[in-house]
Amino acid sequence: MLTTDSRPRNLRWIHAGPLLYGDWGTSRLYVLGLAFLFTGHASIIYLAAIGLLMLAVSWAYTHICRCFPDGGGVYTAARQLSPTLSVIGSTLLLSGYIMTAAISAIEAFHYFHVPHHLVLPLAVGAIILVGGVNWLGAKSAGKFALIIALVALAVSAIMAVIAIPAFARGIETISFDYFRHSPPADMWVNFTKICLALAGVEAVANMTGMMKKPVEKEAKKTIWPVAIEVVALNLVFGLALAGLTFAVAGTEMQHLDSPDTERLVESRQAFIDTMPPASRNDYNASTPIMLTDEQIALLPEPGAAAYENLESHRYQVGQYTNAAMRIVAQNTATDVLGPTMGTIFGNIAGITFGLLLLSATNTAIMAMVSVFYAMAQDDELPRTLTKLNYSGVPYIGLIISIIIPIIVIIFEQDVTVLASLYVLGVTGAITVTVLSSAINTKLELTPLTRTLFWVLGLFLLSITVTIGVTQPISTAFSGTLVALALGIRTIRTLRPASTGKAIEAPGGGWMQILTVKPEIDTDKPKIMLAARGRYQSEYAIDLAKRRDATLMAIFVRQVRVMDMAPGRAPQIDTDQAAQETLGTTAMLAKEAGVPFIPIFVTASSIAEEILDYTVTYGCDTLIMGKSRRSNVARRLEGDVITQVAKDLPEGIILMTRAADIPHAMMPPGMGSRSTK
Q1: Nearest CA-CA partner of 492 in 379, 400, 384
Q2: Do 244 and 390 fall into the same domain?
């Protein structure tokens, strides 16, 4: 009799909320600066508009979570209509995650205020470090995300209070001049550029497979507090940013009369005008001008001064676009508390938000791993992407998820450019999710709800199409990934399907042995074996035989991906290691005449499952093997034996032994043992 189980539903809104905030809330850290860069004192109007869109998308995702309680998001929603559409949607989402990891890593060190030349190497190192931590399957990364999200909320609350004077000045600066002199097409395009504020909402749909039931209730409690906080504080800090006394090219932000995209053009033109007429055609005021030290040295004195002003202007714009919340924190605290406290509070905010961005990098990398894993499970990508390391992490997908963002930031570190690469994947994935849900008549949506889904989906589609047309760099990046994914899928469908080799095991296969139903005497004592290896099995069987006990053996297949819906978790039918481990014990138990029950579990925590099954089945003895993990892995993740021993109820004996020690007949009571 084989007992199997899958990942438990243990995610509550109080834990899911910070995870969502760590992804969704970080977009504020660069969206505010970009909105002001593009639209100046009209930015608050844009932030209000994007806020309304965020609330509409939040409402839609409460229904999407309800309709897909076993794991939703673009891949699941689109797959019910078309596997090809699901590949397109998930690849768009993947491109968004890639850029999230890249832009968050770069922005983290902008917020840490490290020298410019160190940003790239430190960002690369941070991505590698995050990948290394996840390789070891460290749960501490999740705890870190929760702690830093709470600290970031606290710092944001303090900032909101300190920023009240700047907020008041920001209200006075609200201007509609931008809308009077800008063509409607330009206003719409600038709106689409800041739609990356939507980034992160897909994360909640991917969590539903882990949420406690009722999922609808948990999802609403997860989504609405985060959405309201993000929208409200975007407006508060957007106004505070517009009301700052921080000077850009000699003018305080509160007094700027035009967006810095236009003012930078004027600064470039001022430099070009100082050049000899014959050289002016070498420059374009509409594009950045970057000169080498040798070229600067050859400039005439007026040209050198104009170029220095241009560089200063560009640097100051970079300060508020790269680290808007740090600038808000430092400038407002300086105005209220003085320069010293302003610097201290700016550093505190910078470190806090920098760590929050690194947490977002971690979330994005693991989300990429989940997308690779889910697509490989459905044979849309090579099955090698489902291979797990000892910590339960799909390691090939993890390596790829580390390499791609590093390649991106090696070639580009400008936040404005990275944002343009980012936005198509974000809006495209959300558009596919919403429209797929609207089209799918099998989903339980009221006529009014379905109509609103159509309206929202078509509006999002117009945004996505606009981005695709006006931002060719974003289209090229996301389009290349989609083409690559579809190409791999096409090649795999053309290849003949492999039937695989027959399982060679005694008695016609391990599964035949494992599914035999034994005769169990409920009055006999029970022993749980949570160790691998023949020597361990022989030891446990010998002990069970001498005690006339029933032996149980548990194999926990640890899986560390964010989205684990039913049907995507590893099954014992395809898990050769689990079959061999449990099958070997089953054969030896049969030969010894010991009643045996094998247990296969897919879960994120080994220790919790061992404890749960040992206690649930009323075992009085638990046999475990010595850890095979490295010292580093045990320090990050925690030793499984130590975790089990800490929470093991009184009356249950814990016995540990090394897997490489051959078993010999021993009198009762020998071996390494501890009790609680």
Answers
A1: 379
A2: yes
Cα of 54 vs its chain's centroid, Å: 19
Enter the pTM of the model.
0.72
Predicted confidence (pLDDT) at residue 668 exceeds the cutoff of 70: no
| Domain encompassing residue 175 | 3-259+320-493
The answer to whether the CB of 103 falls within 8 A of the CB of 316 is no
Residue 439 domain-assigned (yes or no): yes
106 and 14 share one domain? yes
Rounded to 5 degrees, what are φ and ψ at 466?
Answer: -60, -45
Q: Could you count the other beta carbons within 10 Å of the beta carbon of residue 321?
A: 24
* Cα separation, 550 vs 530, whole angstroms: 14
The single residue listed with the structure tokens 């739609």 is 195
Tokens coding 183: 């063509």
- What b-and-e string marks burial along 45-59, b requiring 16 or more CB atoms within 10 Å of the CB? bbbeebbebbebbbb
Q: Which amino acid is at 386?
A: T
Which one-letter amino acid corresponds to residue 79?
R
Q: What is the pLDDT of residues 417-469, one digit of tens each?
A: 888 777 888 899 999 999 999 999 988 899 999 999 999 999 999 999 999 89
Helix (H, G, I), strand (E, B) or coil at 4: strand
Task: Provide CB contacts within 8 A for 337, sequence distance 6+.
Answer: 162, 345
Tokens of 351: 């470190």
Q: Is the backbone of residue 259 left (phi > 0), alpha (psi -120 to 50) or beta? A: beta
At 276-331, the pLDDT tens digits run: 888 888 888 888 888 888 888 888 888 899 999 999 999 999 999 989 999 999 99
**Is 357 in the same domain as 248?**
yes
| Same-domain check for residues 515 and 481 | no
Of the listed ranges 139-148, 267-276, 360-369, the least confidently predicted one is 139-148
Same domain for 515 and 481: no
175 and 28 belong to one structural domain:
yes
Res. 500 pLDDT band, cuts 50 70 90: very low
Q: Is residue 293 part of a domain?
A: no
Strand partners, 673: 655
Please report where in the chains the tokens 């697509």 appear, as a residue. Answer: 375
Q: In this structure, are 484 and 516 located in the same domain?
A: no
Nearest-angstrom CA–CA distance, 166 and 526: 69
622 in Cβ contact with 648 (< 8 Å): yes
